């Protein structure tokens, strides 16, 4: 069952969304419906398996730059 919904959005956003919907051969209503559906499904499907839960926190978090440096060193080493 469909229900009417009124939204107040900036005009330029509405025009951009209409263009996007037209380009993707869908209606603005369907576009918004699919977006809202994806938001609510993500929240419902965020259960974590016991295995993943048990592994959480095992790998220490370090600055990303260190991994980049180590990876670059590794690549240099194997290229020689």
From TrEMBL:
Protein's UniProt name: Antitoxin
Organism: Sphingobacterium pedocola
Pfam families with a match to the protein in the record: DUF6364
